[in-house]
What we know:
mainly alpha
Amino acid sequence: MTKPQKSMYKSLKKEAHRAAFVQMLVAQQKALGRYTHWAPAYLRKCLKKKARPIPAVRDAA
């Protein structure tokens, strides 16, 4: 996640908007063909903070 994407994510208030943003990120990274390390790292971060990750991240990891 780039710095502008991270600040954009933090500015989103509704959980549905945040979930859609993360889903867009997963799709973007899959289309680029790189950043395969991001989804498992994000999943670990969610689990560490006891947050429920969205299904797109669980499927990508």
